[in-house]
Amino acid sequence: MAFEKKDLKKRSKNLSDWYNDVVVKAELADYGPAKGSMVIRPYGFALWERVQEIFNSWIKPYGVENAYFPLLIPMSLMEKEKSHVKGFSPELAVVTHGGGKELAEPLAVRPTSETIMYHMYSKWIKSHRDLPLLINQWNNVVRWELRTYLFLRTAEFLWQEGHTAHATEEEAIKMQTDALAWYRKLYEEHFAMPVVVGIKSEKEKFAGAKTTYSVEALMPDGKALQAGTSHNLGQNFSKAFEISFQDAESNSQHVWQTSWGLSTRSLGGLFLTHGDDQGLLLPPKLAPTQVVILPINNSQSEKVIENILERLISIDVRARVDNREELSLGRKINYWELKGVPLRIEIGDKELADESVTVIRRDTFEKTSLKLDKEFSDHILHLLTEIQDNLFNTAKKFLTENTHEVDSYDQFKEIMKTKRGFIKAYWCEDSECEAKIKSDTKATTRVRELDQKAGNGKCVHCGKPAKFVWHFAQAY
Amino acid sequence: MAFEKKDLKKRSKNLSDWYNDVVVKAELADYGPAKGSMVIRPYGFALWERVQEIFNSWIKPYGVENAYFPLLIPMSLMEKEKSHVKGFSPELAVVTHGGGKELAEPLAVRPTSETIMYHMYSKWIKSHRDLPLLINQWNNVVRWELRTYLFLRTAEFLWQEGHTAHATEEEAIKMQTDALAWYRKLYEEHFAMPVVVGIKSEKEKFAGAKTTYSVEALMPDGKALQAGTSHNLGQNFSKAFEISFQDAESNSQHVWQTSWGLSTRSLGGLFLTHGDDQGLLLPPKLAPTQVVILPINNSQSEKVIENILERLISIDVRARVDNREELSLGRKINYWELKGVPLRIEIGDKELADESVTVIRRDTFEKTSLKLDKEFSDHILHLLTEIQDNLFNTAKKFLTENTHEVDSYDQFKEIMKTKRGFIKAYWCEDSECEAKIKSDTKATTRVRELDQKAGNGKCVHCGKPAKFVWHFAQAY
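Output (structure tokens, whole complex):
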């Protein structure tokens, strides 16, 4: 609580030092006792609850239902789909003892739930009338990790994982595409983060998938963040888990599947994208508190403040008053700036006399005097919308300015050594060539944008013929 | 989907056979692949989401904030409070390997989160200004168990666990009492389940608590279900974890703590309490679908049905239409009766001609013809309220009729051998006496009701002086 502004590390100096500092000081999260672990504190969790609320409001009307599957997966199930277990086994946490005894078969703490869910799907799906099966889970998963980077890299994280089964591949691909569209919308309209949307390379796709789509965001240090993925699993899992159905003609067929996930990592991307040297900067659509009201003179303004609060709450603005008597106004301002609350209202004697308040934007620090008249609420809503748009436009401008189209490998290497960002370049789609680029530049293929028309290019690295331009970047 | 009513086991014959059958057939839950594990299917999970929504709407305005703490707890933390680890160690699932290596220190999969949360609280709490600290988690916990009784006994379950820290014991006891009141309200007003509310005996209290309060429900087989608990932890954990604060006079003090929890077990109690030979019977306030509309003649009634659906949804009635063409009306009726939907609306040619619908109550099977006039929606709301009340009153009557005041041990034993239920009797509060009663009758002390005035009784078992009457029962 007793936050000293001067203590906060400068974002303008070192992004990652600032990030580690602000996440803890703004009470978003803290380090847990075990290596790689994280505690999500109430202020951080309130943001995750907002994400859940928004995402549920899209998936439920679409017909996706939430459910809950077990945390602990028998190793024999994990091993049923070969490329899947190969991808995940190095990251598993394994329960070997339960109830004081060594287990006959060890249990994996789920790193993702394909195997356990599809084991159940094979019991539940019998007929084409059982399809599509559209299930989502909000849960915790563990992928072994010893170095914590709060939200961005932790052994345990929270996420949603959607898992669907369909009668045809066309339907599955539509689902995969629709899930990707939800992720894009979530980032662009709510997180105020522009994203690049596309398909992953063979090497970068999900272990067990036929294709992986991804939304990729660009962080202020020029590194990309894989921010949500949607997989066409084809029939890989339905064959391994024997998930089949009788079609309308009574023929037995394997189902076509998708899975798609978005995690608390997204919040790390959010905090990195919008802050400044004063602290966080939360987009109004996500901010747990959108407007904080600071009384300069408590006793006199009480009724007016109560009235403002009521007016804002009545139009669904998430507003609150900071009445703490032990803190000076300056300390309170520092506190709420650190917390990234989009709008601050100050009200003192001068304002009272004038029947107005002073409103300060967190993004531009612009001060406006607003009359407490009929239009007051509309002005507040308008300002919140402006802040949301400004954050998005600023991030969009950054993305555009830091996306480099290159056609020589020297240029490629030079950019990755200096300013980084996205590089757009033709690539031959050969995995060895991709590995070579990575070892030279630390950059990996991020995505090939969807709906891209095939061209006649040359691979930026090896010069072989290349049909498509890919986004490359160093990644989180 | 292809449910045959005749297949459902009879509740009137054997409650637990019926329960196991209906939970699977109504698609509330299923057995997971590992021993003791359970899958909560969408219909069951929708009920848990309702519980979350209701409970959050109470705790958040009270000032309790949701957060998320790590799943995996270092064993050294588990061991800090001696009676706590003693209580939980026989039930632990233990991770010994991570990332392909044996861990230097094994990690317990949380059976409850006192230890990991209070480790963090000791970092966060410094001053009386940091108090009270009111945090809740919705998460999964594991307590080793090999035999699954869906919802009622599973190795992993979902729950909420509230954990608070206060400056004084009075505040802590108020919190403990308020949490208990939420549980009582949740059961009585939403689950339509009357509960007995009181304090646990020394032997039955939570491992590490000073006192435990509990709400106890009576199942139709005469066994009690511990349905939610609220603990005064005193300073047991704050001393073990060094959680102290400077009070207003700058003296260092240990905080006073509470924890309180309610789990998916509650849903097991709900299903046991209200069903019948036709299937589930869900109280309207919890039912994911409150009203199902069955068209008898699809083509003609489409517009009328669309209109009814809109009217109901506009007043927040959770209504849906069953349009499935592959099922006969009879099959649909069986299906929705199995699912326990409180009200069914049938609409066919007769009803269309008459501008009315037939409404059938799930609890009494009473049929009413309702005109589609201005009062239609009010009638539906009224019927839903009546069903809610009827379910509660029926359960209340059962509880009253199956609560036996006894003063002889022979009577006690006879009742526990035959009809069971709650027994109210004076008890000396001696643990050995309690153990003897349990070994004779399988009955344990459930609670001593709060606010009970001390009397001058004799212990029903040993005859020694006893001040208070206790509720005894065999328990789930």
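Chain A has three domains: 5-274, 291-389, 403-473.
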